[in-house]
Design a protein that fits this description.
Blueprint: E1 24-27, E2 32-34, H1 35-52, E3 59-63, H2 68-79, E4 83-86, H3 93-103, E5 107-110, H4 112-115, E6 128-131, H5 132-140, E7 156-162, E8 170-175, H6 176-190, E9 197-200, H7 207-218, E10 222-225, H8 231-241, E11 245-248, H9 250-257, H10 263-266, E12 271-274, H11 281-290, E13 295-300, E14 309-310, E15 325-326, E16 331-335, E17 348-353, E18 360-361, H12 365-371, E19 372-374, E20 384-394, E21 400-405, E22 410-412, E23 415-417, H13 419-428, E24 432-442, E25 446-455, H14 462-473, E26 482-485, H15 499-507
Amino acid sequence: MPIALDPVAKPVDHLAEFGADDALALILRDRTLTYQDLRQGIAALAAWLQAKVPQEGARVASWAAKGELTCLLPLAAARAGLVYVPINPLLKHAQVAHILADSGAVLLMGNAARLATLADDDVPEPCEVVEEQAIRAAIDRQAPGLPPSVRDPGELAALLYTSGSTGRPKGVMLSHANLWLGAVSVAHYLGLEADDVVLAVLPLSFDYGQNQLLSIWRAGGCAVPLDYLTPRDVIKACARHGITTLAAVPPLWVQLVEQPWPDEAAAAMRRLTNSGGALTVDLVTRLRALFPAARLFPMYGLTEAFRSTYLDPALVRSHPTSMGRAIPFAEVQVIGDHGGETQANEEGELVHCGPLVALGYWQDPQRTAERFRPAPPSSTYGGTAVWSGDRVRRDEEGLLYFVGRRDAMIKSAGNRISPQEVEDAARATGLVAEAVAIGVPDARLGQAVHLVVRAAPAAVDAEETLPTVLARELPNFMRPQQIHWRAAMPLNPNGKIDRAALEADLRA
């Protein structure tokens, strides 16, 4: 039976309470966990965390591949009264150092190989680094676990770091209510049930990836976390575990539809979900042909408001480019430049209202004030809304369509990339005097990162050396696909680098 909507939020750690004791909750590489195991594991990890970090509201971070620790930690930290800070395992030491310092994390948990790449000055005082195997051993010796807690649903539960169009990654503050109601909403509109098996291929540091676990646990079903190297790994896992639900971003879908799918890999598939970029009409057609029995859910969202819209699978054939309508617990309005709601087919800014709206940016009141502002007078929920900066229109049927982005953020392979972060990394090498990162349309990635640079006057062998240095300092998804060298940068009338001219030149 599909999950019923319940607008009453609870502490997020209660999401582990819904499965039958002997039902599978988690299938890992080396072991499986029933719901009874899941509850016991969360209780034991929460007890260890509370003993290790007794300060209420302290931040604890993880930097590891998908495993028992990263799957249980969000609920265990919440139960212990701590704030969870997941760090994308693809990030390198410089990005990790920033997140640790910005969040004020007092504990970093991770696997030995990753932790070994950190220099002493990457880990700020008083953050303690603990290897995940040591945690497993300590938990095995742990006294009785910590029972479920009673907490204010509006209390801070997690910081998810996401890049904007400028500056370094910023921490989006998510409450227990944000995570709880997001799980209930998605489990409801996807129609997840207790016999569903979700293949969790997306990073658990993303709201979309984290929700894969929380929503399937709300339904009492099973999650299979997977860190894959090739599309074939995904297909093999679908066959091995009888996967019924697969969530991905467009670049991965492109790779998957190019592969042969044996009958046993596709036979159990009930639903496909997409976010992190729009599906093309061609890709929709190929997915429907490859999985004729599966329902396709195109979705749109942003970390600051979790998820805004989804398109009913029944409308995908007739409206393949639509963003759909608001998900449960979300109110989405289109506000014109005049400050009021737009008319049908009139362009405006997407404004997200309701209980899924995050609490703001961690220790950044200026940027919080820019994005989190009072809801429009026409809002039913009122309160604080997220003004997305995305330009959309609503048709006569009430369906939304994406028009464009107001900011310069690059969205590549489902990742939000700050141009300034790439530019800062290039300038920090000492090889370039000026750098501009631009997103260029790409059939497979959505946007590819291109870097336009002017060499530093004293740089030696800059063109040969810069790619190697950036490969060492930046995660794969942030590395420039191409580097363009210029003798001089174009300037606008204000004397600033003319980004628009560079972008036009690269897209010509």
